[in-house]
Amino acid sequence: MTQRRQRQGRLSISHRWFTCAATLTLAGIGLLFSSCSKSPSALNPQGPEANQITVLWWVLFSIGALVWLIVMGLLLYAVFRRRRTSTDPDRELVEPEKLVLIGGAVIPAIILIALLFVITNTIRHTSSTGDASDLTIEVIGHQWWWEVHYATQAGIEQDFTTANEIHIPIGQPVRLKLSSADVIHSFWVPQLQGKMDLIPGQTNTLVVQADNAGDFRGQCAEYCGIQHAHMALHVIADPPDTFATWLTGQEKPAQAPADAKALNGQQLFLGSACVYCHAVKGTNASGKIGPDLTHLASRGFIGASTLKNTPDQLKTWITNPQDSKPGNLMPPTQFDQSSLDALVAYLETLR
Ligand code: CUA
User: Treating both helix axes as pointing N-terminal to C-terminal, what angle do 48-80 and 107-126 enclose, rounded to 10 degrees?
Assistant: First the structure.
């Protein structure tokens, strides 16, 4: 009677343990596949470098899962098997030693050495610094936004600065020269490449390539202060002709506003403290502390992807940027309603 109860107790503990492990496994698989859909996930690669990383991820995941299943299988076998009574005293001593040696040292060593080669191979394929002839874009990390500079280079006459949104042409490698104006940041666009740090006083090179057109969200991946989480970016991959049109547009200085309201807004802008931090090419505004606003209205977001770039959100942002992004360098500015409307009407002309 007592023996049966003991066995039942043991079985119910094993059963609970098994249910728990099965639930965790199913939750893990669910989480994995939910991140495979159209999300900015490393499991949804859009270029050759990201493809390499995804393949490596699946290799590591599959081997890890296989090892886990084998270990769990052995564990369940040990839990459920009948206790053996052996008459041979040597048998119980030799078997576990062999098991520990083979299962705990030889097999893991073989697996880890094989994986070392696979990982090294992926690093070799993703750490190219590109050719001097590749399109090169300078990206400078700031607390908490990305300055993006397109300088004149082989074949392309250009010299303009934008922020937080990096346009690239599809199907060709693009060199990003990464540095920082303050602390260490990390550039990470999971669908295109692995992470690369932006370090003050040093320039790191990262080659990215997008095979398909799209808007690939990225994120600063190194804690850099209170608004680290609000330091996002977008890499927008365009077909070559769309990219050429974008380049031509960005290269031009801002057009003078045509209507009276926007003109009034421009005067307000140029007469305010805005110009000490922001530049608008073609005007006297030439501040370098904050993002260049020459073509602000052509960008999808403000505050490094904190808010959508709409007239209402711009008003919210200008009135109190500390509300949606506390700690950033931009101070609140008080304008009366008609001045604010005029100012935003002007900013909307900066296409
Ligand atoms: Cu920049 Cu975190």
Answer: 170
